[in-house]
């Protein structure tokens, strides 16, 4: 008895395969957009709720099952409310044509960026000029950038110093750096409510720690009282860094060795058609 491959390879089966691939592609894009954001932790919480629901269903735990049904029923609305910033950024991401464009990872102008940060921070530390500088890493900071004054300016030590000079319009708040540019100044950051923060630390340190609790941003703080230089990231606070330790930390966290540029399959297909058409 021979197997008839024509029964297996049909248009219906081919369309089913395409259907599955498209769904997986969009799931992959969704995970890529959410990777490194606060939404990942919320998704883990949702997964726990689903597991509890399944266990309560199979074990006939009627009260727990009923409660989980209520939570899941309202989950769609809650998800829209909780994920509102991520949904907005995702739609903007699609609106910019990234689905058909290149995926490009910018090269950090390592030495230039670190030199500007070091020059400004050491200048302000010696003169006890308070400063708060946050650098976007993987987690988007758009919701905090929108609270400040947009600049979109090239980074220089002189500009950073000038922003934080006391009694100027932009000195009160955070400078936020995105894609190696000063995206905004006078931005508002979330204050940490942790009881473990030493009492002698002021609002700038509390804001830096607060941002590090909800994002992976790297934040630099210059104390107005002591001139000490501190750095926060991922809920970790490093206080009173020397200039050598400060530069070493920035080099470890900010310098990217090489540029990686890749095209998604859709972009490669479109460019292939263009090349064929131009021949």
Automatic annotation (TrEMBL):
Where is the chain membrane-spanning?
A: 13-31, 43-60, 66-83
Annotated catalysed reactions = 2 ATP = 3',3'-c-di-AMP + 2 diphosphate
Against Pfam families, the record matches this protein to: CdaA_N (PF19293), DAC (PF02457)
- Enzyme Commission code(s) on record: 2.7.7.85
Task: Please provide, alphabetically and separated by semicolons, the GO molecular function terms listed in this UniProt record.
Answer: adenylate cyclase activity; ATP binding; diadenylate cyclase activity
User: EC top class, in one word?
Assistant: transferase
Q: Is Nucleotidyltransferase there in the keyword field?
A: yes
> Does the entry feature the keyword Kinase, yes or no?
no
Tell me the ranges covered by the DAC domain, including all copies: 84-243
Gene Ontology biological process terms in this record:
cAMP biosynthetic process
InterPro entries in the cross-refs: C-di-AMP_synthase, CdaA, CdaA_N, DisA, DNA_integrity_DisA_N_sf, DNA_integrity_scan_DisA_N
Query: Keywords for this entry?
Result: ATP-binding, Cell membrane, Membrane, Nucleotide-binding, Nucleotidyltransferase, Transferase, Transmembrane, Transmembrane helix
Q: State the protein's purpose.
A: Catalyzes the condensation of 2 ATP molecules into cyclic di-AMP (c-di-AMP), a second messenger used to regulate differing processes in different bacteria.
Concerning its family, UniProt says: Belongs to the adenylate cyclase family. DacA/CdaA subfamily.
What interactions and quaternary structure are annotated?
Probably a homodimer.
Database matches in HAMAP family: DacA (MF_01499)
Any idea what this protein is called? Diadenylate cyclase
Q: Which organism is it from?
A: Carnobacterium divergens (Lactobacillus divergens)
Name the gene behind this protein. cdaA
